[in-house]
Amino acid sequence: MVRLLTFVFAFLPAYLLACTINGVQFSNQFEAGRLASCEADTDNQFILHFTPEDTPINPSPWFYFSAQSPQERTIRVSLDFGEFSPRYLPKISHDKQTWTPIAFDSDGNTMQVTISVGKAPVYVAAQPPLLNEDYHRWLTKVGKRLNTKVMVMGQSLDKRPIYGLIHSGSSKQWLVVLGRQHPPELTGAQALLAFVDELSNRTSLSTTFLSRFNLLIVPALNVDGMAKGNWRHSDGHIDLNRDWHNLTQPETQLVDDYLTNIVKKGGNIAMALDFHSTFYDVFYTIPQEADCTPSTLVNDWLSQLKEQTQRIFDLIIKPGNEAGSGVFKQYIADKFHAHGVTYEVGDTTPGHKIDYIAHKAARTLMETLLSFPDDAYLTSQNNQKQAEQ
User: Which of 108, 266, 372, 385 is most buried, with most CB under 10 Å away?
Assistant: First the structure.
């Protein structure tokens, strides 16, 4: 048996790790796990090291590990991020389903937590993980409401399926929703789920909306990075949200192929959103004076959202227009002359607030999109010219 286990572990991918030290086993041998190495400080104090997949990198230090011991004991664990500052506050779980915040301290580029361990593993993570199989289950529920099926849009560089959903009818107008270009950005992922749930809930508003607008939803693009617990990049060592100008990666290429084919068949990309997380809630937009149609669309939408949420939500808008920058919203503007919006959610924004704002954002966006006549959006002829450039 010992030889068999040694043989199996010898062929584990290099990013997977299990280490037993002073009677405690630490491991990242599960999807989205992240742990680089471990060492003992004293009998009940340990140092765990976390490193990014590449350098240089826009740092989002992701950590996700388990700890267990043959005897119940309380241990002190220091999380060391090397040259990078911590970003996410630790959460703990005993079943990888229910997560609660855990008390911590910090000192420079380290965080310290105290946890009780025993025979059953306890899990500590930067954010409650949301895996590709979770997206598939959720999309299946959305598909039932929309009477459509989950699709495999394509494959990642490491041959993982990238799931998506298309709801289309006789309309030429398309709303595009994209998420998880950066693996650790889980608050943005939660907002995307709530946003799409509102679009698909078959209220009188959403029913009217879906009669005039088609949907393309790709909720998790960087599935390799998600599976491997990457801080930022794809398996191709690329920040996908900087690849939309060059389109070097299969993940960005497959979305571009779908959007380009929509336009070639006579459709219009009316608007696109991609969901992210950062240090606070903010909407990155294309300026009204840019060559996007209708010019006031996003300002009208966010003005309505602000009016309805201003007592509890500090809505921050940051317009920017940098042609060829490689970010998704700019790609939508450059190629399709349509508005792209980066919907950013704060890392520590409470979950109930995330859901509330996302539902409000979806309702007000549907109302705003419906307020314009079809001829206010790009014609398929002009849209197609941009797609072919």
Answer: 372
- Chain centre to alpha carbon of residue 154: 18
Cβ(177)–Cβ(271) under 8 Å? no
- Distance, CA of 276 to CA of 253 (rounded, Å): 20
CA angle, 168 then 169 then 174, to 5°: 50
| Model confidence, pTM | 0.94
CATH of domain 2-125: 2.60.40.3120
Arch. (CATH architecture) of 132-388: 3-Layer(aba) Sandwich (3.40)
Q: Tell me the Ramachandran region of residue 205: left when phi exceeds 0, alpha when psi lies from -120 to 50, beta otherwise.
A: alpha
Domain limits, CATH 3.40.630.10, in the chain: 132-388
Contact at 8 Å (CB) between 175 and 225? no
102-115 pLDDT tens trace: 999 999 999 999 99
Contact 181, 221 (CB under 8 A): yes
